Structure formats: C-alpha cells, structure tokens
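Structure tokens
________________
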Amino acid sequence: MAEENESGEQKFEVTEPVFINLGKQKRKRIKRLMKGRGKLWTEVESVIDEVSTMLGDEVEGKTIVPIVMVYRRNPKRRRTRGIFGF
C-alpha cells in the first residue's frame, strides 16, 4: 500500500474522492462525526464499504478518501419596518 521514496516519505495510491452529503445535521452529531463516533460515522463507513464492494479488485492496495459535506442553514434576517409598517 504505502511506498517509501528517496526522501523517506510514504506515498499512497488513492482512488478518486468519494463525496458524501449528509445534509443538515445537529451540532452534537457533527462533533461526534469529527471524533469518529456516532450515527453519522457509521453512515460514512457504510458508504465507504459500499464503494469498495462496487469497485471490487480495482480498489485493492488503494486508499479511499471520503469527503463529507454537512451544512447548516442560517436563519433568515427579518426586515425591520418603519414606524407605520411600510
């Protein structure tokens, strides 16, 4: 898997990145995901397993890189109206 070059650095073969969109999530779930725990982490692991089974022999000796996207919607700003509501 990892090869060392002349300067002693390791070189990994990497497949194309796998994008995983988890959508809007709570802050607590995101913190658990960053620690490698929780429901979201198991979802990421299941996607990686699914991709590796789809690729089959092509993935042997390579590293799968998941790119996880989570978003949070900002609340809309309320307009302030004048004294008379115009």
